[in-house]
Write a structure and sequence with these properties.
This protein is of the alpha/beta class. The chain folds into two domains: 8-139 and 148-201, no CATH class; 213-349, no CATH class. Helix content is 43%, strand content 10%. Strands 2-1-3-5-4 form a five-stranded mixed β-sheet. The longest helix is centred in the middle third of the chain and has 42 residues, at 169-210. It is elongated. The N and C termini lie far apart (92 Å).
Length: 350
């Protein structure tokens, strides 16, 4: 049996970045490029002899395995819903991501594989594309309150030689291999987390949302049968609502609370934030409950005994039983409705 030819991957020399490091990892995750050697150069006569080029060569031609994004005419995005141009990582992921995800998770072709493929792009690769293309995460007029030096890009960047550090070619290549390993480890964690955690959690949350009108006739809260990370799926489902549902009483935009089993054997209730990254809630629990615990909280709420606490900022709390947790949320909704009615009545008399 003839030995398999080892493939070659080329990328640019000099300072390296997250996108080409991840692109190399993705290619090496494919059966075709397993164990591929990597050459870092900007010499066209060297690059033209290599099987695949990423982030160098001024050419995007997937049929010829050329994955550069620096040419002026380049405008490729992951799909029409995105307005961020792809980096070399995004280009390789767009073409081979399904195969990479399948190799890392053993998911068969189908809806689940497609869901993980899209989820990992949105939650992991997109940020690398945006950073490499100079797309700010915030409006230019907004000054960040702090800066992070622990993200993946920063960790890769620190592997580059310091301005006053001289490395041999072998030492620099070893640093780049470390960058590939770091980006690959983080990417693998993201893929397996999506397949083994996000997918099952999505089913739990979708089931709860589907039956929310059985638990709450107004649809203002939903109950998880078991704890599962819920925010991502909740906002994804809200975003995907048909136009005829948005703005109606059946819209998830009306949903203000979630109830779920607690690790300590009781039940937790939590306010839905205004968006996935926000600390502000659509509706807090009554301010008179903030910071109260146990019997003091029982007395303040007037619902069945067993209340455990309401957080001092009013976004979450706990109760010993599911019925008690539901009663706490229902009482919070009633008090908010009464306060709104009183406010409207007072304004009407002015």
């Amino acid at each position: 049996m003839a030995a398999r030819m080892v493939k070659t991957i080329g990328t640019h020399s000099g300072t390296f970045h997250c996108d080409e490091a991840l692109a190399c990892f993705l290619l090496r995750s494919l059966d075709t490029f397993k164990g591929a050697t990597i050459t870092r150069s900007r010499d066209p006569s060297v690059l033209e002899k290599l099987d695949c080029l990423v982030d160098v060569g001024s050419e995007y031609d997937p049929a010829r395995l050329r994955f550069d994004h620096h040419q002026r005419s380049f405008a490729e995005t992951f799909s029409p819903q995105y307005d961020v141009r792809l980096s070399s990582a995004g280009l390789v992921y767009k073409r081979y991501g399904r195969e990479v995800v399948a190799n890392l998770t053993a998911l068969p072709a189908g809806d689940q594989l497609e869901a993980v493929y899209e989820h990992v792009y949105d939650g992991f690769v997109l940020a690398l594309d945006a950073i490499d293309n100079g797309v700010s995460q915030y409006p230019a007029t907004m000054e960040p309150r702090y800066r992070s030096s622990t993200d993946l890009g920063a960790r890769v960047s620190r592997l580059n030689p310091r301005w006053n550090e001289k490395l041999t070619g072998e030492e620099l290549m070893a640093r780049f291999e470390r960058a590939i390993a770091i980006t690959g480890d983080d990417f693998t964690d993201a893929v397996r987390g999506a397949a083994l955690s996000w997918l099952p959690a999505r089913e739990v949350v979708r089931a709860a949302l589907a039956r929310r009108f059985e638990d709450c006739p107004t649809g203002e809260f939903f109950v998880l049968s078991e704890f599962a990370p819920w925010k991502g799926t909740f906002f994804d489902e809200e975003k995907a609502e048909p136009a005829e549902v948005a703005g109606t009483a059946r819209s998830l935009a009306r949903c203000k609370f979630v109830i779920y089993p607690s690790e300590d054997g009781g039940w937790r209730y939590q306010a839905v934030p205004v968006n996935p990254a926000s600390f502000a809630q659509r509706q807090q629990f009554p301010s008179a409950w903030f910071g109260l615990r146990d019997t003091e909280l029982d007395a303040a709420t007037g619902v069945e005994a067993g209340a455990k606490f309401v957080h001092h900022s009013g976004f979450t709390g706990g109760h010993a039983t599911q019925t008690g947790a539901i009663a706490m949320v229902q009482r919070a909704l009633e008090l908010a409705s009464e306060a709104a009615q009183a406010k409207n009545a007072a304004e009407a008399q002015e």
